[in-house]
Structures are given as structure tokens and as C-alpha cells.
Amino acid sequence: MTPTPLVLSLSLCDYVIIEEGTGKASLIGCFNRLVVSTFPSSRDFFLAGELTGGRGPGRLGVGITRPDTDESILLLDTTAYFRDPLFVVRYITRVMDCSFPVPGRYAVVLSLDGEMVGQRTFEVTSGGGSS
Q1: Res 116 pLDDT > 80
Q2: 36: which strand partners?
Q3: What are the residues whose beta carbons fall under 8 Å from the beta carbon of 90, sequence distance 6 or more?
Q4: Does the N-terminal or the C-terminal CB of the chain have fewer CB atoms within 10 Å?
């Protein structure tokens, strides 16, 4: 894909609500830190991103890793299509049963055709609730 798109946003949240009629997305319970009761721990959540500046089709990939060990926790991929460079592609997926083996920092990497286009980190800790 040419040119490489720009990631406008990349969010982790508990739920996503898509408004009927307008298609507006509401991200509910966005977090930078995920609190679980025990380790290893599985958790469902949503990943929502927006990209622009691309042209044509491409393979959109999401990876969750442990930066300290480069261990892969989750890999997802799908097809994205940019009809023109000003078009905004919205990517929303439910991540199911993502298993976190230990507390610590995790990275979410968004790639297009194998090239990293965006990244963010979040913490996973033990306790009660998420924030």
C-alpha cells in the first residue's frame, strides 16, 4: 500500500456502542491500565482505531506483545480498504479471551501490510476493577 497511512487513534475499552442510523461510535470504559484478579488471566475487551492517508487495499494486523520479552500474546488480521487518502478507516474488534500470563506492560501494535503504523502500551496489574 502506498502511501503509509496515519493512525489517528488507537483505544482499548470495555465496550463499543455503534449508534443506529448515524454510525457514530461510543467507546465505553477506555483504559490504560487493566486490573485482573489473578495471573494468568483472560479478559475480553475492544480495540478501536482510526486510520487515514492510505490508498487501496491492505492487510491490517493487530499484535499484543510483552515488550520485555517480545512474547506474542495475540495476533489478529483483516483486510482494510482506503478508497482515497482522505478517507478514514475505522477498525473495531472484540478481543476475546486474551490471556495475560504475568503483570506488567503490554504493547498493542497496529500494522498494515506488515509495516508498523501505530503502537500503544498499557499496564496489566492485579487487584479489583479497571481504569
Answers
A1: yes
A2: 126
A3: 25, 48, 49, 50
A4: C
